[in-house]
Amino acid sequence: MDNNILAGYAAKLSALSVFRGILEDKTISGFLKLLNEPTPKNYGGFTASLYAHTDNMTAYILEAVTEDENPFMLRLAAYEEVPPFIERAAKSELAVLQELSRISPETVRRAMGENAVYAASGWKTEEIDFLAAYTRRMSCLSTRGYGIFAKYHTFTLKDGRLVPVKNPDPQRLSQLSGYELERSRVINNTLALLNDKPAANVLLYGDAGTGKSSTVKAVANEYKDRGLRLIELSKSQLAELPTVIERIARNPLKFIVFVDDVSFSSDDDNFSSLKAVLEGSVSTKTPNLAIYATSNRRHLVKERFSDRDGDDIHAGDTREELISLSERFGLKVAFLKPNKEAYLKIVEMLAKENGIECSDELFMRAEAFALRRNGRSGRAAKHFIESVLSEM
């Protein structure tokens, strides 16, 4: 009798259409296998997979459901009308999944018969209204997101696919010192993006080690709970920008496409890709995205004296196009090397954060350290404090 019950559950799970994507989840597919064949091997495989995340099966299945990227949710996210048959199917499947999430280990053990003696592990279940929980979740798509964007907030591009960064740089704005005015301009622009106001593409340029990249990453970390996501591309991936933009254009979240340490040679093919996006070509206009780029150069294209030779009749126009790429950023923020006072202020803040007593001797050592490291910078201050900590 219990075998027939499990077989019925297996049939219901196998028949999912709207939420079929959750069957690709290793733990849920392991559960389906257990329902079809309640053996000690399948029992142990499922519980081991579940324990890697939680011991609560109801909560696990609900999370998989609310983060699933499916036709019903995509239409809701895009504020499109949902066909009645898809809506009915979604509600019916939520009821099925709610029922499945409450299957107890005792029910499975009974179906295992005498083999149940080998199934010592178990799991928790609880009473949760899946339809109500799903409705609440769909009401905050603009801040929580869906699919991989619900689980992660930082991404890279690999083989044309967005890949989540599972352990991103944890840098926070509160950990950065100096450049408050420069950083506030980046923050204000980001807040405009989040508040559905016109936001500029941003170029952060200036000396190495002054916190350009750290500012972008800290902003992404600061506002991830408000629906901000960061996609980091290398310069060589700029040709894939239109594909990335198409992938996220209808997403209710907001995105920063981050290109770090940008510079181009005059014959660089990636130049045109970035130029097209910055100029807002028809294929790249989307209000939920801004480009943030960092560079050590005020003008992003390297120009050599040899470039001025050749047979280009309108060489002046060509040069002007190359050197004016940076002017296509709506907001340009300069991060220049700090003077002595600003540098020592950064050292002081980092010292206090790490429980190091500030003194004239410490500041003298910090100055000497900077002179040996290509001059004063936020990076030099950080490395100095790390060296002091290692001595302690």
Average pLDDT works out at 87
Number of helices: 18
- The beta-strand count equals 7
Give start-end ranges of low-pLDDT stretches: 311-319
Strand order of the largest sheet: 2-1-4-5-6-3-7
**Span between termini:** 69 Å
- Give, in order, the helices and strands: HHHHHHHHHHEEHEHEHEHEHEHHH
Rg estimate, integer Å: 27 Å
- Overall structural class, as computed from helix and strand content, comes to alpha/beta
Percent of residues in helices comes to 40-55%
What amount of the residues lies in strands? Answer: 5-15%
Main attributes?
48% helix; 18 helices; 392 residues; 10% strand; seven-stranded mixed sheet; alpha/beta
Topology:
Elements: H1 2-14, H2 26-36, H3 40-51, H4 57-66, H5 71-77, H6 84-100, H7 105-112, H8 130-138, H9 141-144, H10 148-151, E1 154-158, E2 161-164, H11 180-194, E3 202-206, H12 212-222, E4 228-233, H13 241-248, E5 254-259, H14 270-278, E6 289-295, H15 315-323, E7 331-335, H16 340-353, H17 360-372, H18 378-391
Parallel strand pairs: 1-4, 3-6, 3-7, 4-5, 5-6
Antiparallel strand pairs: 1-2
Helix pairs in contact: 1-2, 2-3, 4-6, 16-18
Describe the protein in words.
The structure is a single chain. By secondary structure, this protein is α/β, with parallel strands linked by helices. 48% of the residues lie in helices and 10% in strands. It has 18 helices and 7 strands. α14 links the parallel β5 and β6 (289-295). The N and C termini lie far apart (69 Å).
Short description:
The protein has 392 residues and is of the alpha/beta class. It has helices spanning 2-14, 26-36, 40-51, 57-66, 71-77, 84-100, 105-112, 130-138, 141-144, 148-151, 180-194, 212-222, 241-248, 270-278, 315-323, 340-353, 360-372, 378-391; strands at residues 154-158, 161-164, 202-206, 228-233, 254-259, 289-295, 331-335. The chain is built from 18 helices and seven strands.
